Amino acid sequence: MTKSLRSPHHLAPAPRRTRPEALYFEAPTYYRPQPADPPAVFLAGGITGVERWHDHAVEVLQAAAEPLVVINPNRVRFPIDDPGAAWEQVSWEQHHLHLPTVMSLFWFPACDPAVTTQPIAMFELGQALGEGRRIVVGAHPDFPRAPDVHMLCQLARPGQVVFSDLDHVLQAVLSQCAGVQ
């Protein structure tokens, strides 16, 4: 008899939540939306070779007046020596980015272009724009591809605001989530 391998996308459902409550999920733990959950926000954007901007975003979003589900791809410890870790990470991110009830907060922080230009995050932004998903976007002026972020957003969604400060991105997310249940 062959052993069945289960994908992390097909786990048993989480215990039923009956009221909105603030929730936090960090890779590689999967979020399974439930009808009673408050708005969910995925923290998309640069991870490798940039400041740990996710920490500030989590702090601000968890302090919101209304509860939110915060989905953070930036693990405390990434298993860099595990050859399967990148596949697991990107698969986890794609799962959460494509949940229909999740808003994506895209932040492209300042970085050294010799270290990274955040290609996966740029790809994910292009996907989100092309698929019409709910997003809030920001690019630090010292992100080397900031002009490209602005251009992509304007071509795909004329009028899409691209903020240049993370706190402005966070305030826009909180404004869009206010009163959404």
Description of the molecule:
The protein is built from 5 helices and 6 strands; from the N terminus they run ββαβαβαβαβα. It has 181 residues and is an alpha/beta fold. The protein has a single domain (21-76, 87-177), classed as Rossmann fold. The protein has a 6-stranded parallel beta sheet with strand order 1-3-2-4-5-6, with helices on both faces. Helix 1 runs parallel beside helix 5 and helix 3 runs parallel beside helix 4 (146-156).
- The first-level CATH class is given as Alpha Beta
Give the total of domains: 1
Work out the helicity level.
25-40%
Q: Describe the main β-sheet briefly.
A: 6 strands, parallel
Q: What is the tally of beta strands?
A: 6
Overall spatial form: globular
Mean pLDDT: 91
Give the structure's gist in a few sentences.
Helix content is 33%, strand content 15%. The protein is built from 5 helices and 6 strands, in the order E-E-H-E-H-E-H-E-H-E-H.
Element layout with pairings:
Blueprint lengths: L22 E4 L13 E6 L7 H10 L6 E4 L12 H13 L4 E7 L10 H13 L3 E5 L6 H11 L5 E2 L2 H12 L4
Parallel strand pairs: 1-3, 2-3, 2-4, 4-5, 5-6
Helix pairs in contact: 1-5, 3-4
